[in-house]
Amino acid sequence: MPRGWSGAFDAPLPRSAYERPTRTVARALLGAFLVRREPTGDRVARIVETEAYVANDPASHAFRGPTERNRSMFSRPGTLYVYRIHQVHCANAVTRPGQAVLLRAAEPVVGRFPAPPRGPGRLCRAFDLARADDGLDLVTSDRLRIVPGPAPEETIVLAPRIGIRLAAERPLRFALSGNLWVSTPLPWPRVRRGAPAPGKEIGS
DNA sequence: AGCAAGATTAGCT
DNA sequence: GCTAATCTTGCTC
To answer: Which residues 144-173 in chain A have a CB closer than 7 A to strand B?
Structure first.
């Protein structure tokens, strides 16, 4: 146990928790705590929305293999992958090689945040995550980790991912139903007439 | 070397 | 709902 981690949000999610099918991890991270430890105090938020970027996924940065930008996606499970898009950053937890879970939104629990962690860009601002944090190990880091939380009482819903063009219809976005910190309201706001109802419940 | 597109967000109509 | 901001990545020439 690294020095400094002796408070309430100690025990990090073990590497084995990341070394599972990406969809399983995306769902399992709901209700877990993202924890940043600073000399000034902890910042803790409960993860309420994720997206899975899986193998052979045209929307994934890893689709065309390793590059300089995405090399963290091919690092160990539990590695943090941070990239820049437009003028913001987005953070992912790496699962299996070339796959990751995008952290889209979290609910503040402890500490003050520079921005509300609602939406992937704001979540990074809330935790001061930038490209310099790319490659950090969420299992062993002194600064940042994910800690298991109680099973969510909210229903978990599955919906298409946000902001992508390729494979846009695949339901790989996971969220806690009704949670106000989810970045986009569910059910899905743009629905084709005759299309299946979005926000389908997949479990309780 | 140049360039089009992007896992976003804030602000305006 | 729409668009600009803003800049990096990675593909193409």
So the answer is: 161-166
